Each structure stands twice: as C-alpha cells, then as structure tokens.
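Sanity check

After download, print the first record. It should look like this:
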Amino acid sequence: MIEEGKTAPDFTLPDENGNNVSLSSLRGQIVVLYFYPKDNTPGCTKEACSLRDAIDDMASLEATVIGISPDSSESHVKFREKHSLPFHLLSDPKHEVMEMYGAYGEKMLYGKKTTGVIRSTFLIGKDGTVLKVYKKVNTATHGEDVKKALEALR
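Expected structure tokens:
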C-alpha cells in the first residue's frame, strides 16, 4: 500500500470513452483517486453517489475525482449515465495500477479470505505527494469524509 508523504506512482489508463488518462497530467490539482470493485453493485454505487453528491464542494477545494475498477469502458459509460457521475472512471482489467497502490490482493469478504479489489482512496496533492490514505471506506459517507479531509488540508 502506498503511504502518506510518498510520491504517488504515475499511471496511464483508459477512461469510459477510451481516452488515456495519466496521473501526471493532473499535476497542479488535488486528485481523489478511489479504487472500487465493480460498477452497479450496491456498495460501489453508494460510494460513487456519495462522491458525486460532494463533487461541487470538492471542486471548490481544487480537487478532481477519479475512480478505478477492473470494469470495461463500456460498463463505466453505463454506470456514469445511470447515476449521473460527473467524474472519470478508469479501467484496470489486469489490476496493474491497483496492485501498485495496494488496492488489489487478499481481503476478507463475508468472513472468507478472497483475492480482489480492496476498496481504498488516496488524496494526492498538487505536486503528486500522497496526502491521505483511506484503507477503510464507509461507502455511504465517503464523499463527506473526503470533503472534510480536503478542508482540513487547506
């Protein structure tokens, strides 16, 4: 897992429209980078909508939200449209970026060990430094939690 104070690893992944997005292209902005397991599942939908609902406040704090899951660009298009998500969703089907960030691996799911996406979020500063790491996420309040953290960083 990437630690606070370290430089966030750069990456390039396709967004919902098939356009490549690089973390380095977002320098100068604060990036809310969140990893989630699957489009249109209850927890992931709750988390995405929570971030959506806080997007205006985050934008006023100069933050950009980016979501990453293993889903296809086509799945991301449907997920964004269905829930009016105003941020990009990137596809990482081989889990390469997820593994770099420690967001893929062994986890407990319903009391059983399994391997998969570990729901986590990284606040990345304008200079590319990791400011905050969320290893545990409350999907219902995540947008508000992130907004408060961004306000505290000001």
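If your output differs, re-run the checksum step. Summary of this record's structure: The first helix runs from residue 42 to 53.
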